[in-house]
């Protein structure tokens, strides 16, 4: 585990595990306000904000965006995925939680990593909530029992909302359980409406029993 991972809530006997993943140039601490807003609604959850492994300027990143293109992004995400999965696995082991009891909440680059993990043969979580997000490349498969919740501001100029509109259609075409919450006037950020939507979506999909 990264020593800079931030434990936001850790009951003695958690019923589920919620892991948060920040965007490029940020840190685990930047998602602490989101976790603190969610914690009262998830009293039985162990909740951790994970810090990306690579330093970039004053912050951290899951993969480099220097010179990133549509063509080379998938390879960069694939190269970063083993470390991403290892970090998830370490917290699952520490909290005695299985993938079926795990939710990944990612923002921006953290959401890209979380979404791409759903395309693996053995996904690390049963639920993914992706904020200001996109897939590295269009979804190709839908492993069983994964719920994907996309959340995006209509005014996002970093990752245009059309990316997730298309992703939702692709996921649903594959037979996935997927939703999209859009927020009028919201840019590449998180506000109270996003928090409310996360709480609502989590309430619709209770974690698996141990």
General description of the model:
The chain is α/β, with parallel strands linked by helices. It has one domain (6-204): Rossmann fold, CATH 3.40.50.1820. It is 30% helix and 22% strand. The chain is built from 5 helices and 9 strands, in the order E-E-H-E-E-E-H-E-H-E-E-H-E-H. It has helices at 32-38, 73-95, 109-117, 162-173, 192-204; strands spanning 6-9, 16-21, 45-50, 54-56, 59-61, 102-107, 127-131, 147-153, 177-183. Strand 4 (54-56) and strand 5 (59-61) form a beta hairpin. Helix 2 crosses helix 3 (109-117). It is globular and about 45 Å long. The two termini are 23 Å apart. The mean pLDDT is 93.
- Any idea what the CATH superfamily is called? Alpha/Beta hydrolase fold, catalytic domain
Q: In terms of structural class, how would the helical and strand content be classed? A: alpha/beta
Taking all residues together, what is the mean pLDDT? 93
Question: How are the strands of the largest sheet arranged?
Answer: 1-3-2-6-7-8-9
Beta-strand residue percentage: 15-25%
Number of domains: 1
What is the CATH third-level topology name? Rossmann fold
**Radius of gyration over all CA atoms, rounded:** 16 Å
Q: How many H/I helical runs?
A: 5
Query: Which architecture per CATH?
Result: 3-Layer(aba) Sandwich
Q: Under the CATH scheme, which class?
A: Alpha Beta
**Tally of strands:** 9
How far apart the termini lie comes to 23 Å
Summarize the biggest pleated sheet.
7 strands, mixed
User: How much helix, percentage-wise, in residues?
Assistant: 25-40%
Order of helices and strands: EEHEEEHEHEEHEH
Instruction: List the uncertain runs.
Output: none
